[in-house]
Design brief:
Blueprint lengths: L1 H18 L8 E5 L5 H8 L3 E6 L2 H9 L5 E4 L13 E7 L15 H15 E11 L4 H13 L3 E7 L8 E7 L24 E2 L2 H9 L7 H13 L20
Parallel strand pairs: 1-2, 1-4, 2-3, 4-5
Antiparallel strand pairs: 5-7, 6-7, 6-8
Subunit structure: Heterodimer with TRMT112; this heterodimerization is necessary for the metabolic stability and activity of the catalytic subunit BUD23. Interacts with GRIP1.
GO molecular function, one term: rRNA (guanine) methyltransferase activity
Family: Belongs to the class I-like SAM-binding methyltransferase superfamily. BUD23/WBSCR22 family.
């Protein structure tokens, strides 16, 4: 329906905006799950070139019939992105990546498929570029799974949520950086009524990411040791009393 087309093109426009492409030259973009090429139309209108990948021959047939400008590839992105290193100036994906979380065949492992997708995507993107993947996650576990595999593959970045307080307009964009980590863009409609910003999860690097993701302290830190001792006390185990020396590092020699 025309409503679907309209939403699709709005999300494509937003995804390309979040890529932060240089304005002085045309770029080559990868469109993951390009379908009938609606997001590609927007990329072409914006003056850029694109290659689209999709798993559905029927959808790609529609794209061919519509005479889209981009090149089309029939492929399952869960098997990886088969392009040479550094080829793309950016990647967008509209409503597609969550499908990698489904295991259709016995042999399919969602974490492995996600990792294969993200690691080969990372390689295919030029250093300093971005991938912006709009997705409809089923739940927070799925978001965590997808984000964790992206970070494992070397990306930095995180989730940009547009209109987080609206049931209808809320949109998730996984905004990933290759190489130098930029600032995560702000989600639209994230200023609350009193001007305070909604805090978004940022994933900067592995170390702090795992602390933030689960709210735990960095391993072997004083806080971590105190939490562990407290936990063991609650389990009824004998634990030494806490002193000012707890969690202190010894000097290399006395």
């Amino acid at each position: 329906s025309s409503r679907v087309v309209e939403i699709q093109s709005q999300m494509s426009e937003r995804a390309v905006e979040l890529l932060g492409l240089p304005e002085d030259r045309p770029c080559l973009l990868l469109d993951v799950g390009c379908g009938s090429g609606l997001s590609g139309d927007y990329i072409s209108e914006d003056g850029h070139y694109w290659i689209g990948m999709d798993i559905s021959p029927a959808m790609l047939d529609v794209a061919v019939e519509r005479e889209v400008e981009g090149d089309l590839l029939l492929a399952d992105v869960g098997h990886g992105i088969p392009f040479r290193p550094g080829m793309f100036d950016g990647c967008i994906s509209i409503s597609a990546v969550q499908w990698l979380c489904n295991a259709d065949k016995k042999s399919h492992s969602p974490p492995k498929r996600l990792y294969r997708f993200f690691s080969t995507l990372y390689t295919a993107l030029a250093r300093g570029s971005r991938a912006v993947l709009q997705l409809y996650p089923e739940n927070s576990e799925q978001l965590e799974l997808i984000t964790a595999q992206a970070m494992r593959a070397g990306f930095t970045g995180g989730m940009v949520v547009d209109y987080p307080n609206s049931a209808k307009a809320k949109k998730f964009f996984l905004c990933l950086f290759v190489g130098a980590s930029g600032m995560l863009p702000k989600g639209l409609g994230t200023e609350c009524a009193d001007g305070e910003e909604v805090h978004q999860a940022k994933f900067t690097n592995e170390r702090t990411r795992f602390r933030n993701a689960k709210g735990k302290s960095v391993k072997k830190s004083r806080d971590w040791i105190l939490e562990k001792k407290e936990r063991r006390r609650r389990q009824g185990k004998e634990v030494r009393a806490d002193t000012k020396y707890t969690g202190r590092k010894r000097r290399p020699r006395f």
